[in-house]
Amino acid sequence: VACGQKKIQSQQKNAKKQAGQKKKLGQDQKTAAKAALIHTYAACRTQMPDPKTFKQHFESKQPEAPPPSELGDVQA
């Protein structure tokens, strides 16, 4: 009986530990993703992770407007 009870307690403890790690990991991924969005297009306030994506977004959404100065030498 004691071994069965220890097994149940061990499983509950492990489940609680796993749930805590999943929650922490989810928050870390959200924080990292948010930190990666470093380029902001002022007209629509869309954030992009890199200049190439920024240029593609700009060319598709604002083809008639002159490109922002930070996109001058970016290859799409």
Description:
It is a single chain. The longest helix is centred in the first third of the chain and has 35 residues, at 2-36. The chain has helices spanning 2-36, 51-61; strands spanning 39-41, 46-48. It is built from two helices and two strands; from the N terminus they run H-E-E-H. The chain has a two-stranded antiparallel sheet with strand order 1-2. By secondary structure, the protein is mainly alpha-helical. 61% of the residues lie in helices and 8% in strands. It has two domains: 1-36; 37-71, no CATH class. Residues 52-62 have a biased composition (Basic and acidic residues). It comes from Prolemur simus (Greater bamboo lemur). Residues 1-31, 48-76 are annotated as: Disordered. Its main location: cytoplasm. This is Small EDRK-rich factor-like N-terminal domain-containing protein.
Descriptive labels:
76 residues, mainly alpha, two-stranded antiparallel sheet
SSE inventory with pairings:
Blueprint: H1 2-36, E1 39-41, E2 46-48, H2 51-61
Antiparallel strand pairs: 1-2
Protein name: Small EDRK-rich factor-like N-terminal domain-containing protein
Biased composition (Basic and acidic residues): 52-62
Biased composition (Low complexity): 1-13
